[in-house]
Design brief:
This protein is an alpha/beta fold. It contains eight helices and seven strands, in the order E-H-E-H-E-H-E-H-E-H-E-H-H-E-H. Pfam families: Glycos_transf_2.
């Protein structure tokens, strides 16, 4: 482990991802990124993902921490808990990504290079910049919904990014501290929007790199009607609510 390099912690929330998590660990370890760590935030998965994570922490060459939460109360809350723990653990860079293998690990070195050599406060893996793509097996209505969601968010908040709802990001620790990540209110996918909004509203720059977003092959999606409704309302609350 190269402790002279910035400590980079990948925060991965899990709920019933016992089949995908070992594959993700293998892919991250293969990157050979110096001083790379993984923090699994498990929401008491009934399928035993938390126990799988603990075993991986013993067996893998990749340093792995496991944060066990007792309740499943949303993606946003899991990320806030994980990012807060990563900062407390001395992370210089925090990467957020899903456990379902939809985010391509091989793009991480590019994200880190841009984050550390430019003025970007955060680098996100984007489906909608040139070179990016959504999964080819997405049905047309899901593609349309994703495109509409990004148009909708940008029309209200003027974020100036192509993929405002992206969940694959590399953050400077100082950016997360500046936007007061521990106080983020949103949950679900609107968490991503609020994080972006707090970043741009403080005059910090979001960079985008192209990714091909893949559909999960194991497990089931966690999207619910409540998550969709919150995602529709949050941009308006951010636009017209009190500035933090």
């Amino acid at each position: 482990m190269d402790s002279s390099s910035p400590k980079t912690t990948v925060v991965v929330p899990t709920y019933n991802e016992r089949d995908n998590l070992p594959k993700l660990v293998e892919q991250l370890a293969a990157l050979e990124v110096p001083n790379l760590h993984l923090l699994v935030v498990d929401d008491n998965s009934p399928d035993g993902t938390g126990e799988v994570a603990e075993k991986l922490a013993i067996d893998s060459a990749l340093p792995i921490g496991v944060l066990h939460r007792t309740a499943k109360d949303g993606l946003g809350r899991a990320y806030v808990a994980g990012m807060t723990r990563a900062l407390q653990g001395g992370a210089d860079i925090v990467i957020q990504m899903d456990a379902d293998l939809s985010h391509p690990c091989e793009v991480i070195p590019t994200m880190l290079r841009i984050l550390t050599t430019t003025d970007a406060a955060v680098v996100l893996g984007s489906r909608y910049v040139p070179g990016g793509a959504v999964a080819s097996d997405w049905p047309w209505h899901r593609k349309a919904l994703s495109a509409w969601a990004n148009f909708y968010v940008n029309a209200i908040l003027r974020l100036g990014v192509k993929d405002a709802t992206a969940g694959f990001k590399a953050w400077h620790a100082r950016t997360l501290e500046a936007i007061e990540v521990a106080s983020i209110d949103s949950n679900g996918y609107s968490f991503q929007v609020e994080m972006n909004y707090r970043t741009t509203s403080r005059g910090m720059r979001i960079a985008e790199v192209p990714i091909r977003f893949e559909e999960r092959t194991e497990g089931v999606s966690k999207m619910s009607l409540a998550v969709q409704l919150e995602s529709a309302l949050v941009p308006w609350k951010l636009r017209f609510g009190k500035k933090r």
